[in-house]
């Protein structure tokens, strides 16, 4: 299993929206590195859900339920989408400030490459984020 982090602005599509809908197509990615990460996602992989712009915090865990397929919202180009469904809200959202202050999370792409909207996460980082967010799966 692999682990990932995706970013969404909470006023556009929050983790609560994902919980309410039960599943979503993760589309609209127009960055080549992020697209390639989407294509690396496999069914069952776990995904940290991060609220960007407002909140700046990891708020939940979702999972990949459909692997990469052509993004139907793309008018041109070779873009991909995946389907995600919610797994669990973090008991305590974990802020970017806390993540940046944690030495074991300094290699997390969220810290190093802040603008990337889809990124891999190492299993140890994923587990530490869950622990810091007081959440068990």
Q: Quickly give the structural class.
A: alpha+beta
Task: Note the total helix count.
Answer: 5
Basic shape: globular
Strand order of the biggest β-sheet: 2-5-4-3-1-6
- CATH homolog superfamily: ph1033 like domains
* Major sheet size, sense and barrel closure: 6 strands, mixed
Q: Strand-and-helix sequence, N→C?
A: EHEHEEEHHEH
What's the alpha carbon Rg, rounded to whole Å?
14 Å
Q: Could you report the average pLDDT, rounded to the nearest whole number?
A: 97
Q: What is the total number of structural domains? A: 1
Characterization of this structure:
The chain is of the alpha+beta class. The chain has one domain (3-132): ph1033 like fold (Roll), CATH 3.10.590.10. Helices cover 26% and strands 36% of the residues. It is built from five helices and six strands. It has helices at residues 15-21, 32-40, 96-100, 109-112, 123-132, and strands at residues 3-8, 24-26, 46-51, 57-70, 80-95, 118-121. The protein has a six-stranded mixed beta sheet. A hairpin with a 5-residue loop joins β3 (46-51) and β4 (57-70). The longest helix is centred in the last third of the chain and has 10 residues, at 123-132. The mean pLDDT is 97.
The gist of it:
The chain has helices at about 15-20, 30-40, 95-100, 110, 125-130; strands at about 5-10, 25, 45-50, 55-70, 80-95, 120. The protein has about 140 residues and is α+β, with helices and mostly antiparallel strands. The chain has a single domain (about 5-130), classed as ph1033 like domains (ph1033 like fold, Roll).
Helices and strands, with pairings:
Elements: E1 3-8, H1 15-21, E2 24-26, H2 32-40, E3 46-51, E4 57-70, E5 80-95, H3 96-100, H4 109-112, E6 118-121, H5 123-132
């Amino acid at each position: 299993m692999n682990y990932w982090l995706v970013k969404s602005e909470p006023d556009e599509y929050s983790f609560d929206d994902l919980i309410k809908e039960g599943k979503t197509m993760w589309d609209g990615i127009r960055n080549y590195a992020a697209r390639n990460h989407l294509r690396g996602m496999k069914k069952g992989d776990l995904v940290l859900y991060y609220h960007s712009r407002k909140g700046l915090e990891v708020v939940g865990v979702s999972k990949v339920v459909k692997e990469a397929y052509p993004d139907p919202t793309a008018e041109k180009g070779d873009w991909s989408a995946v389907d995600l469904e919610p797994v669990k809200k973090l008991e305590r959202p974990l802020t970017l400030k806390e993540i940046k202050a944690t030495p074991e999370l300094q290699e997390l792409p969220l810290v190093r490459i802040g603008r990337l909207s889809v990124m891999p996460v190492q299993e140890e980082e994923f587990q530490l984020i869950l622990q810091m967010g007081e959440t068990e799966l």
